[in-house]
Specification:
Elements: E1 3-12, E2 15-25, E3 30-34, H1 41-49, E4 55-61, E5 64-65, H2 71-77, E6 79-82, H3 94-101, H4 107-120, H5 122-125, H6 137-149, E7 155-159, H7 167-182, E8 186-190, H8 194-200, E9 203-208, E10 211-217, H9 218-223, H10 225-231
Helix pairs in contact: 3-6
The structure holds adenosine-5'-triphosphate.
Adenosine-5'-triphosphate binds near residues 38 and 84.
């Protein structure tokens, strides 16, 4: 497995948010993490990328124990996170946002990498010099994904990429995620839109109040009565 979590717990101060989380993501897999507001999805992604909160338990990535490593070391090993709410650098250009995403790469790699990202995300290519804060929500989401891809990640952590976007744009974001998977990127996807996430996922986990309560293939979870009632509104 590319990523393995063993008995991971996380807390904000005295508030325990994750309990005994054991999970794995294999190379090339697209795994969806589904759960309601406040269940701990974002926290789990943040514990994997190392941006906090403090956690206990074992996290192995590509053969390394990473639980105690600083976030930038984890980026260098191949973990890149696309945060909830995009968090693009609003006063910087599209080009500069992408270059910042490549902070771990040698300078000479950045030019070719930028062209690869623009080929993948043509809507951004036409807006290279535009300030990121002036882009539409959908364009900012594409930019946030492009910025993470600049790190050439082995594992992409996507937090609520469809949040607040119009239906057509949501469809484009999910197409991009499916394309990235086809191209071999390993993805851990957190989504409120459980239907769309499970439809493209190889496997999924359901998290409730900080505990993983179900694990199955995307197809099986879509058909699971408990999932349908709690997360698919069926
Ligand atoms: P959402 O979809 O609303 O983002 P989530 O499943 O991602 O939900 P988390 O954001 O991981 O949930 O939050 C899990 C719990 O941790 C919640 O009870 C939340 O209030 C708490 N929490 C989140 N961030 C902090 C923080 N910085 N300080 C203290 N508590 C926090």
């Amino acid at each position: 497995m590319l990523l393995e979590l063993d008995n991971v717990a996380g807390r904000y101060g005295r508030n325990a948010v994750l309990h005994g989380v054991s999970a794995a993501v294999g190379a090339g897999e697209l795994v969806a993490l589904v759960g309601s507001n406040g269940a701990g999805k974002t926290t789990l992604l943040r514990v994997i990328s190392g941006v906090g909160p403090a956690s206990t338990g074992r996290i192995r990535f590509a053969g390394h124990d990473i639980a105690r490593l600083a976030p930038d070391r984890r980026v260098r090993l191949g973990i890149a996170q696309v945060p909830e709410g995009r968090q693009v650098f609003a006063p910087q250009s599209v080009d500069d946002n992408l270059r910042l995403g490549g902070f771990t790469r040698p300078r000479r790699a950045l030019g070719p990498e930028l062209e690869r990202i623009y080929a993948l995300l043509p809507a951004l290519a036409a807006r290279r010099r535009q300030l990121a804060g002036t882009l539409s929500g959908g364009e900012q989401q594409m930019l946030a994904i492009g910025r993470a891809l600049m790190a050439a990640p082995k594992l992409l952590l996507l937090d609520e990429p469809s949040l607040g976007l119009a239906p057509l744009v949501v469809a484009a974001v999910f197409r991009l995620i499916a394309d990235l998977k086809r191209a071999g990127t390993t993805i851990l996807l957190v989504e409120q839109n459980a239907q769309a996430a499970l439809a493209i996922a190889d496997r999924g986990y359901v998290i409730e109040t900080g505990r993983l309560v179900l694990e199955d293939t995307g197809t099986a979870l879509l058909a699971n009565p408990r999932v349908r009632e709690a997360y698919l509104g069926v």
